[in-house]
Design a protein that fits this description.
Elements: E1 10-12, H1 13-23, E2 28-31, H2 38-46, E3 50-53, H3 57-71, E4 75-79, H4 82-98, E5 102-108, H5 111-115, H6 126-130, E6 136-140, H7 146-158, E7 164-170, H8 171-175, E8 177-179, H9 180-186, H10 201-212, E9 217-221, H11 223-227, H12 231-241, E10 245-247, H13 267-273, E11 276-280, E12 301-306, E13 320-323, H14 326-336, H15 346-368, H16 376-387, E14 394-398, H17 401-409, E15 418-420, H18 430-441, E16 445-450, H19 451-457, H20 461-466, E17 471-477, H21 503-507, E18 512-516, H22 519-532, E19 536-541
Parallel strand pairs: 2-3, 2-4, 4-5, 5-7, 6-7, 9-10, 9-11, 11-12, 12-13, 14-15, 14-16, 16-17, 17-19, 18-19
Antiparallel strand pairs: 1-8
Helix pairs in contact: 1-2, 1-7, 3-4, 3-18, 10-14, 12-14, 16-17, 16-22
The protein binds adenosine-5'-diphosphate (ADP) and magnesium ion.
């Protein structure tokens, strides 16, 4: 406790929160200032915690969540009461859905007034509202409980299946005074916040036996595997067994996309033909068609590795469940694997290679076309060319067509470098993820954004400029959600302003904007922006007719039997 800061032998809730965070190695807070947390943020900054202030709590929450994903340490978001809390709640729920560790700490109004609904400033029973949307929710009601409250929040966020935690701090607790002696004793330094959970040896043996029986094995790697930072263990297992692998979107780069065992270019074939699939840190949710036909074969058997045992059998029977953390599980697999136990399946790999080749050739025509105006493929090729020599750039990606094409066209070669709409397919993560990634890694970030997606967090361009972060935002501007309206008609529900000059937004904040209408120009602009190390915004003009409605998930978009006029 920095006693010099506090008068006499007394301290208060504000100081205790900051001390408790520092004691647990929290070095960054993402938030929006206001009643009752303004002084808390000032104090944190004075005490050496890096504070990044946003224009909307959802972006602050998204930054905290992605920081948690990248570091395995819960990212901290701080908000004001009721409306600020609600703004942040989407990010808290999204973090929980994606299994990212984060803690949202919100100040709250006077309990005595809130509980009798007597109409306080920003009155809301925030704890009750938060509870169904996060992994755990706690309220601190006495200053001497701040230490325990923060310790519980850290453990809940980081241990087991990670997730979002809500911590409610009343204005009263923040302002409460406590004697220094009691205060010091109340702080808790969390030891081993995310304990390893090694798998049972029987589960490991069962999984390896099943894999040994396979003729067409396939590994599917999810973002849980990327999160686990078990890159070496996973790669060793995949390469030693010679089996093909498919990365889920955010697991791209766990093994490089150009790895000879990657089955990404023959995804449907690999999934449909595999006889044993090992699912590592990936859920059989909508993103994997729930493990059902027509994508999947009814006879395929599964090994599933997950830290959360209730995940098994959630969509399909799992023949060989392995409960444990991915790092421990792959270490155990590698240790238990007998030489030659899982044989390389040459025929399977040959067939896969042929399929990949066919698909790559089919894609090439589309990818190499250079239409004017640009379409999604050509513009993404231009972006890819600028990124080719810079594997350490972090990619943020959201939108519909921009996301679906981006996932396929932008190859990744390093783990945890692709950050996208994730489990919900949510829009609005863009600028928050970009700031969070730049803040914790110090590396350049390129946010590839649909024009509609960008709008949800676009005001954070000011945040990026204020802190001078090396973030280049590329807006794929096709004048609309999915696509733009035809000239001369009134705006439809999916239409956005025609020919908007998004690059002018960043010029208002003193940084460089680019207006790009062709592929060489786009590659040049992105190359220059990355070399500058400064914030930049590129308005990439895309053919308004290029997008398809709902991108690649049109099957999820119900259509009225009586078609609307347009
Ligand atoms: P994707 O969308 O990439 O398929 P999901 O988010 O659906 O990935 O699945 C991630 C899974 O990983 C979740 O079921 C989660 O419980 C699990 N998980 C997260 N961290 C770990 C870990 N360290 N070890 C094992 N499983 C983990
Ligand atoms: Mg669009």
């Amino acid at each position: 406790m920095s006693e010099a800061e506090i008068s006499g032998d007394m301290t208060d809730g504000f100081h205790l929160v900051v001390e408790a965070l520092k004691l647990n190695g929290i070095d960054t807070i993402y938030g929006v200032a206001g009643i009752p947390i303004t002084d808390l943020l000032r104090l944190a900054q004075n005490e050496g915690i890096r504070y990044l202030g946003f224009r909307h709590e959802q972006s602050a929450g998204n930054a905290a969540a992605i920081a948690g994903y990248l570091t395995q340490k819960p990212g901290i978001c701080m908000t004001v009461s009721a409306p600020g809390f609600l703004n942040g709640l989407v990010a808290l729920a999204n973090a929980t859905t994606n299994c990212f560790p984060m803690i949202m700490i919100s100040g709250s109004s006077d309990r005595a007034i809130v509980d009798l609904e007597q109409g306080d400033y920003e009155e809301m029973d925030q704890l009750a509202v938060a509870r169904p949307h996060c992994k755990a929710a706690y309220r601190v009601n006495r200053p001497q409980d701040i230490g325990v409250g923060i310790a519980r929040a850290i453990r809940a966020a980081a241990s087991g299946r990670p997730g979002g935690v809500y911590l409610d701090l009343t204005a009263e607790v923040l302002g409460s005074v406590l004697d220094m002696e009691t205060a010091k004793k109340s702080l808790v330094k969390v030891v081993d916040p995310a304990p390893a959970s090694p798998p049972a040896p029987e589960a490991v043996a069962r999984a390896l036996d099943l894999l040994a029986s396979a003729q067409r094995p396939l590994a599917i790697l999810g973002k849980g595997a990327a999160y686990a930072q078990a890159d070496r263990e996973i790669r060793a297992f995949i390469e030693n067994t010679g089996m093909p692998f498919l990365p889920m979107s955010m697991a791209k780069g766990l093994l490089p996309d150009d790895h000879p065992q990657s089955a990404a270019a023959a995804r449907s074939f690999a999934i449909g033909q595999a006889d044993v699939v090992i699912l590592a840190g990936a859920r059989l949710n909508w993103l994997l068609s729930h493990g059902r036909a027509p994508l999947w074969n009814a006879n395929t058997k599964f090994v599933q590795i997950d830290i959360s045992p209730t995940e098994f059998d959630s969509n399909r029977a799992i023949a060989a469940p392995v409960a444990g953390d991915i790092k421990s599980v792959f270490a155990a697999f590698n240790a238990a694997l007998k030489p030659g136990q899982i044989k390389r399946q040459a025929a399977w790999m040959d067939e896969m290679g042929k399929r990949k080749q066919q698909n790559v050739e089919r894609m090439a025509a589309r990818l190499n076309a250079d239409p004017s105006p640009m379409n999604f493929s050509s513009a993404l090729r231009a972006v890819r060319n600028a990124l080719a020599t810079q594997p350490d750039v972090y990619i943020v990606n959201e939108g519909a067509n921009t996301l679906d094409f981006g996932r396929n066209i932008i190859d990744m070669s390093l783990p945890r470098h692709r950050l996208d709409s994730g489990t919900w397919g949510v829009m609005g993560i863009g600028m928050g993820y970009a700031v969070g990634a730049a803040a914790v890694t110090g590396k350049p970030v390129v946010a590839i954004e649909g024009d509609s997606a960008f709008g949800f967090s676009g005001m954070e361009i000011e945040t990026i400029c204020r802190y001078g972060l090396p973030v280049t935002t590329v807006v794929f501007n096709n004048n609309g959600v999915y696509r733009g309206d035809a000239e001369g008609i009134a705006y439809t529900p999916t239409g956005l302003l025609r020919d908007a000059r998004y690059e002018k937004i960043i010029e208002a904040f003193g940084e460089r904007g680019y207006h790009c209408t062709d592929t060489p120009g786009l590659t040049r602009a992105l190359t220059e922006a990355l070399a500058s190390g400064r914030p930049a915004l590129i308005n990439a003009v895309i053919d308004p007719t290029a997008g398809t409605e709902s991108g690649h998930i049109q099957s999820l978009n119900p259509k009225s039997a009586v078609a609307p006029k347009r």
